[in-house]
User: What shape does this take?
Amino acid sequence: MDTNNEVAQSKKNVSIIILVCLSILIAIASLVVVIISFNANAKANKKTARFIDDQLERQAEQEEKENEYVEDGFMVMDQYEIRSTTHISDAYISGDDSSLSAEDKETLDLAKKVIDKVIKPDMTDFEKEFAIYKWIKTNIGHGTSTVVALPNAEGNDFTPGGVLRTRNAVCVGYATTFRMFMQMFGMECHIVHNESHSWDLLKLDDGEWYHIDIYSDAGTSGYKNFNMSDSICRAGHEWDASSLPEAKGTKYTLAVQKNKKIKNIYAVPKYIKKAIDKKDYSLYFSFEEKLKEEDLPVADVLITQITSALAMNGMDSYWITGAWVDDKDTGYILSVFIEDYNATEAPATNISGEKGRKMTNAVNEAFGTALEYDAQEVVGEEIVPEGIEGAGEEVEEN
Assistant: This one.
């Protein structure tokens, strides 16, 4: 009996052992499944994380590429390419033009002739800038190079070489030519652009940047678009400033450099009337009686009422605008710009006065007309601008 019990107990123990072993095997198998599943999930998560990281990196690169400012190589109006001229300015600075092409050597020679005419050895950077600005403004006309298309004329109106040869330019031509001169003087200069227009951004020795749009001033008697801050420039220009230096200087604005101190803002109308009579179309006024910010809106009344007064006197071709400059030393300075829409731009040509007169006589003979040809108006003939003018004659103030 005891033997039978022992055998039964032994079988029972074996069964228990087997069950325990099976449980352990099942647990181990479950653990293996968990580990395998964990590793699989970890690999999957790692791949997912890598995929997300790659996507974010590509997105960041794309955003950086989109935000990167493109200067040289940009096509304004999908037609006029902004082209680098650093190789020409570097050759001027080094005195070695051996690496330049024949066309670039011609451009350098033409630029040197301008520099010899308008730049003096003791000039400051600002004086050099203003001299080149005035020369381009005075001697370069708007538009394509000729009425009749010339052979091999590609680039004539938007590259410095073409602009200096033909004396005509589109906005890109003005901007690249001015930039080339500034780089020849060792000054930092960028071209600002949008899809349809371009102009320059220059750094002067006060460490500040200034906007210059010669294209918009050419053919006028004013300097409305010379050395503008961002805030003033934005009144007539649009651009993406995210990748460009901020222009906030006032020292080298003409408002600071050329302002005339008068008694108060109520004396301005007499100066504007005198300026219109003299065709002096850019005026800058500082005031003995210091203005506060709340005083500035009176300038709106000034401009509006003068415009109305001009219209009542049959002078509605004049358009007057203004801008305030807040200079830390001078205080508020009022800039007044006068435009006469009846004024005509000089004809754009690059021939001698003698040939022009000869052709005019031929036209008169053929058509029985009495046309006149004024050699002084030929853009191709050199005009050397004078220095910075004063603000006008003295006017009795109240």
